[in-house]
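Subject: Protein record for review, amino acid sequence with backbone structure tokens
Concerning: The relation between a protein's sequence and the shape of its backbone.
How to read it: Take the token row as a discrete description of the fold.
Enclosed: The protein record, placed directly beneath this head.
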Amino acid sequence: MLLSLHVKNLALIDEAEIEFAKGLNILSGETGAGKSILLGSINLALGAKADKDCIRSGEEQAVIEMIFQLENDAQRRRLEELELTAEDDGIVIVQRRISEKRSVCKVCGETVTAKQLAQLAEVLLHIHGQRDNQLLLQEKEQRAYLDGYAGAEMQSLSEQVRKAYRTYCTCREEELQVREKEHAGEREIALAQFEVSEIERASLTEGEDEELERRYHKMLNGKKIMEHVQRVYGMTGDSDSQSASMLIGAAAMEMRSVAALDEEASGLEEQLVNIDALLSDFNRELSDYISDMEFDEREFQEVETRLDLINHLKSKYHVDSIGQIQAYLEKQQAYLEQMSDFDAYKKRVREKLMQSEKELRALCARVSALRKKTAEKLAKELSVALQDLNFLKAGVQIDVVPDEEHYTADGYDRVTFMLSLNPGEPYKPLSSVASGGELSRIMLALKTLKADKEGIDAMIFDEIDAGISGKTAWLVSEKLGALAKNSQVICITHLPQIAAMADTHFVIAKETKEGRTATRIHPVKEQALLEELARMLGGDQITEAALTNAAEMKRMAQEVKQ
């Protein structure tokens, strides 16, 4: 159940707090007062795409917070499956903050993904908008309602069908590839054999190319390197009387003479001797480096040739590494192995496809049988529910037609809701006979049956009264009242007949204060409630006659609920 909704800085709403109750919660107000903004805030809190333009002008962020009370064990289990945790008393707090740069969603203080939030929304609340009426005209949506009404058994079977369908599609794709290979001919086989032979002859080793590149660049730059190190050796070695080594050695001898005459200079002599030793060590290592750097033309050619071969294979097979060349080799080897005994391979693939189709067909048949059985029951119950909504002579028929040549992840049935509005009239598809108002009532009837079946605790109807009036509006009101006995129902409406049935009534209105317009939401009772019903009955002025009519309508609604 939805306990409260808090909205701050969203469009025309500066701040609003609504505490919902059990039963039928009605929201009414003039056109343009902000009812759609309110419904939009609920959708935003439950993961709908947010636009920075929804933030109230002059504010940095919008905040929407909803507090739910879990009502049954099924909801708790579903929450655990989503890896979310409610408060100890079963309270679930959903919060969303929307700023220009980002949007943050939290459940009980824990940040969640948009996917988690969308899944959570299905557990906590069912929202019916005007768009849902048009969706009902689609065959896919009609099949979904039928499957949902079939319950847990259909849910289990449907999951098995989806899994079997994925397997079937994989097998079918493999079989198509076999057909292509069957027409490959000797040319393709010869090409694969050549490629396998070419790569095998190369005897490639993982990481070999990187090591060869390092050696190649070192040898390629060997001449320049040798020029520099030879000059360094000349400057520091002992082959030239003016080299650093010779000069420092001479300086050390001079400093030795000084130390013999003055003990205080012995430290300086020691430093100079150490420098001379370090320079000698450096020269020995530099000499070794020069010896190792001796350029070997033959080795250079071998490295260059090997690199050319590897780069040629990379280019030819459109890859970037030796590992990818090896993967291509394994693929071609597997292909040649298949082609060496192609008939046996083809037989295995086709047998696998036939088996997967057999299993899929059997599951589809079970789903189809359950749909037909459920369709009879749903059609009868929907007919009764529609009669309660002023379809006095209407009949419902749900056609389940198998099409065994076309498998889908939902089975092979075509499901069509058929309607006959008058006795003796032929049944026709819903899409060809139902008007906007009739669709609203059909949808309400389906929602009522679904709520009874699934134990839904909270539902929102956005203008379920579209296209209806008079007696029909009153019957819709009665149906909502009956639905609200076991479920929390929140309904946005323009019709006084529906508003009169409210257990809790909120009025949405625009106010202008200090030069700014804001939407206000407040509960109404007693006289204020009668005045709102009188306004909905029509007329700019609320007259005594309108108030009397409103009071009578409210009294009739109370009698119906009792």
User: Anything to note?
Assistant: The mean pLDDT is 85. The first helix runs from residue 35 to 45.
